[in-house]
Amino acid sequence: MSVLTYKYRIKDSTSGTQLAKMGGAIHYVWNYCNEVSLLAFRRDKVLLSAYDLHKLTSGTSKDLRLSADTIQQVCTEYVTRRKQCKKIKLKWRSQKRSLGWIPFKAAYIKLRGDTVTYCGYRFRLWLSRPVAGDIKTGSFTQDARGRWYVNLQCAVADVTEPARHLELGIDLGLTNQIACSDGIIYRRDNLTRTHQEALAKSQRANKKTRTKAIQAKIANIRKDWTHKATSAIVRRAHRIVIGDVSSTKLIKTPFTKSTYDAGWGMVRSQLHYKATRLAGVCIEGNAMFSSVTCSDCGARSGPRGLSALGVREWRCLDCGVTHERDVNAAKNILALRTGRGTPIKGIRLL
Ligand SMILES: [Zn+2]
């Protein structure tokens, strides 16, 4: 079983003011939790638990026009966050500085066609693709542009027969975002760079809505491209080894912008869950020296250092084979996986 999240945009005309009102009620619950647990701490030197908060908020669902379950989830989330931050008090939430978020359990919503009903209110969706599997939990969320979405977490059965026999090594890069050991390269424009001018212009003119729209557009294109590339990869290979390159190290170099743009984290997580869903395997392999080692003879004869990132093709001084830099790295990552490759959390090994 895999858990997939489906996200649908709610039609503005039907989200109306209702979701904003509910979002406001959630802020109210959150702030109440904040206040009451601070008071309890000052008086008795104890931090209220989620259970305490559930008791304190019980019976308020009618007045708040939220389901009792939603209120409980907000209390629980409050306590989780407080623990994570190791603080006695968290930031206050308000319509102005917090994005709307309304959690729910499947039992409290109804999805029929393109309409979701929650607490007696109906919201219509742009149903871009059908929901598969059983809905378990979900939430309504708002983005920075004030648009509302419904997120449905569904348990989906995994497909059991892998008809693929290919093993692929994968090198994540800045120019070639994804290079595979079989020579296929998935490449797209650097989106941050392509939209740089438009973005800078709207920022200079202090057009906030326009800026947010451009940022959302970049994020959408990147996400869409990544989905297509990762789907194509898992359909080809049953075993995938990804190089363990660290974006945090590269962020400290002149390649900061390109590193953010590459979105390696997204590529990784998508390959993981998609591979698992198709009964494949995705593990992390050692990427050390992968770009300077010749995948044919094993000599470390490739171009070195950050300046060598510009070199796309090189010839091995030892055996004379010419390599495409990233494909060669991907081949090494695949070859090195045994023994040194470490499985990533939650991913099973065959
Ligand atoms: Zn060689």
Can you put this structure into words, describing what you see?
With 350 residues, this protein is an alpha+beta fold. It has 2 domains: 2-156, no CATH class; 166-340, Nucleotidyltransferase, domain 5 (2-Layer Sandwich), CATH 3.30.420. It is 41% helix and 21% strand. It contains 13 helices and 14 strands. It has helices spanning 12-15, 18-44, 50-57, 61-64, 68-85, 191-194, 196-204, 208-236, 247-250, 256-262, 264-277, 325-335, 337-340; strands at 2-9, 101-105, 109-112, 115-118, 121-124, 134-142, 148-156, 166-172, 178-180, 185-186, 237-243, 281-285, 313-315, 322-324. It has a 5-stranded mixed beta sheet. Strands 1-7-6-2 form a 4-stranded antiparallel beta sheet. Strand 9 and strand 10 (185-186) form a beta hairpin. Helix 3 (50-57) runs antiparallel to helix 5 (68-85). It is elongated and about 75 Å long. Residues 294, 296-297, 299, 316, 318-319, 321 line the site of zinc ion (ZN).
What is the name of the CATH topology of the largest domain?
A: Nucleotidyltransferase, domain 5
Oligomer: single chain
CATH class of the largest domain: Alpha Beta
**What is the total tally of β strands?**
14
Task: Supply the helix-strand structural class.
Answer: alpha+beta
Instruction: Provide the CATH architecture of the largest domain.
Output: 2-Layer Sandwich
Order of helices and strands: EHHHHHEEEEEEEEEHHHEHHHEEEHH
Strand content: 15-25%
Q: How many domains, as an integer?
A: 2
- What's the average pLDDT? 86
Q: What share of the residues lie within helices?
A: 40-55%
Shape: elongated
